[in-house]
Amino acid sequence: MATINTALRNSIIADVVSNLDRLDILDGAAVLTTFIITWAAGAAGVQEVQSTPVASTAGGSGDADLANLYNNAASPDEQITGLTVGVGAEQVVIDNVTIASGQTVNLTAMSLTMPATV
Question: Which of 47, 51, 63, 88 is deepest in the core (most CB within 10 A)?
Answer without folding.
Answer: 47
